[in-house]
Design goal:
The chain is an alpha+beta fold and 638 residues long. Helix content is 33%, strand content 33%. It has 12 helices and 23 strands. The chain has helices at 39-43, 51-65, 73-93, 96-111, 123-144, 159-162, 164-177, 408-448, 450-480, 513-528, 552-557, 621-637, and strands spanning 147-157, 186-199, 206-217, 220-232, 237-246, 251-259, 264-273, 276-286, 291-300, 304-313, 316-324, 330-338, 343-352, 356-365, 370-379, 382-391, 394-403, 484-492, 548-550, 564-566, 588-595, 598-605, 610-612. The protein has a 17-stranded mixed beta barrel. A hairpin with a 4-residue loop joins strand 6 (251-259) and strand 7. Helix 2 (51-65) runs antiparallel to helix 3 (73-93) and helix 9 crosses helix 10. 26% of the residues are buried.
Length: 638
Amino acid sequence: ARTTSQPNAPRVMDGDDVDDVGDDPGDDAKPFASRDRDLYANLNVSRDASADDIKRAYRALAQVAHPDKHFSPASREAASKSFNKLNEAYEILSCADRRRVYDVYGMAGLEAGLEIGHRNKTLAEITDEFERARAKEARKRAEAKLNFRGTYGFSFSAAHLVDADIARRREALAAKRNAQLSPFVDMNGVDFNSVFDVPLTEDGSTAAFIGAQGQMVRGMGAGGLILGMRSQLDEHTSAECVAVTGSNQSAATASVSRALSEHSSGTLTYSLTQRGIGLEVGAQRVLGKYSKGHLTWNVGPVGGMTTGMQRAKEKHAWKFDVSVGPQNAGVGGFISRKLSKMSTFRLGVRIGSAAMDVDLMCVRKINQETSVGFSVSLGVRGAHWKFRFTHNGQKFLLPVLISPRLTPTLALCAVTIPTIVIAAMKTYVVEPIATRKVEAKQRALRAKYAERVRESKAEAANTAALLFDQAEARTARERENGGLVIECAAYGHFPERGPPRSLDEPFVPGWGADAREEETEKAAAAADGEPAPGMEAASAPKPRPTPWLDVTTATRFMVFDSALDVLEGTHKASLLGYCDPCPGEDAFLRVRYLYREKLHEVTVGEDDELTLPNAKHQLPAALQKEAAAAARGKSKTA
């Protein structure tokens, strides 16, 4: 959908809109299918696997999990649960109609009775039924909440606190006007632009919007009313009309956007202002997987042309534009880098007839709806500090003029002072508060789901016991041939880190001989049909389970011919022998393995691809020597 651009909308700052690199999608962007169960992960096959691939994977796993292959009551019970999961996954994915329903709607669609089978419903009927239910929910959401968005700017001046000459002129002017001066900063102006959308159709394809804009500078102001409507005419075409009427000037625009091909789109915009009728033609094209280019030609009433290119990939992004015209000619762009999951740094430069400045900005996301930002702008208009706060579509901008005259000393102070203050605030105020908040949330989540996690981990331990013999046999063959040997693996929530400084460092917090022995005892007890350690005294207080799971056996079982592949997007908690040990928290999979007698380690996220072996996972030479010495020590002991 095209972003609404109100004609003649006043702006406090130019070029302050930051395209965050790699932002996490909001709730609306999440797939509809439930993540509670991933049938493809149950069988460890890709989503485009053929019927034969699914059958082969099912047969291989069913041979291990079939209850008839186990004799103790506990093993048979664990095998029965695992076999039932595998059987259900195979029954759904091997049926073309049920698989299509699952691919579109997930388990929610199947559990809601949207099967084809005995109901004799066609896929079109199922789709219509489900879409009606979704439309009803969408209508309720639309009625309960309007899409409200706006930009509010408050510009200040602190130049009199820095420049004595400006301070004297300010005092003289105040005395002449008999006005009282503020002991701190002066407000130079205020402007705002606020619009809210009103859906006109149930599917949201057509919406009207109404809003207002205003501006006040040094006691003089102007304002206007914004009215408009946008509509998605068909799959490839959208249209938008906007009218602005106010005390200063009125204007109207009408634009049409259309996808011209798989990689190209175009926009045609007509405008009517007091200067006359204008026409703007734009074209956009995808140049590669991560880059795109654009060309805009403003035919009139004031001509001009702008072209540029932008690229965004994972943690890095950049943009470059060139403008030619009587009113504005020059070049501009920015380079940004994602410093962490929540922070982005951007360096912007503009050189042209209208401006010449450098802008250094850092934006920090507080949560999915809220972010804060700060930038330092240095240029021919002086030095500015710019603060910004965004929440649920509402953007607040606060530029502060430090000095209209730029000197090397002033530029250095304008950059270093806020950097030191922000670093101190982050270290001594923000991070301690954020850490306490995260820890409190973690404690609440872990207390809430403690019993469920215990049950899930017990079931995973029982499943690991079923896989133990085959996993150990495969590991022995791999070790004998110098192939892929999984030394240890953990899945769940644990702190991120780089390569370990020493092999004595715990694999994950709480990992050690005691933890490994406890998991082994549970698996052995399950295999022998005995109660797991700690289960005899039911009345004794139960310790809170760790937020991670030892998945060494389950991961060893997935090794075939010195290779292990977990596809991107696989819900790892649904893999055989895995579970979700940290509901509501970010989960990671960490694997330490040997390949060709070299030690490797890798950590991947919940949905990330895992391909072993990989030379990039190899640990530093010092750790290789430490591992070799430890191996020799074990050999002598044996």
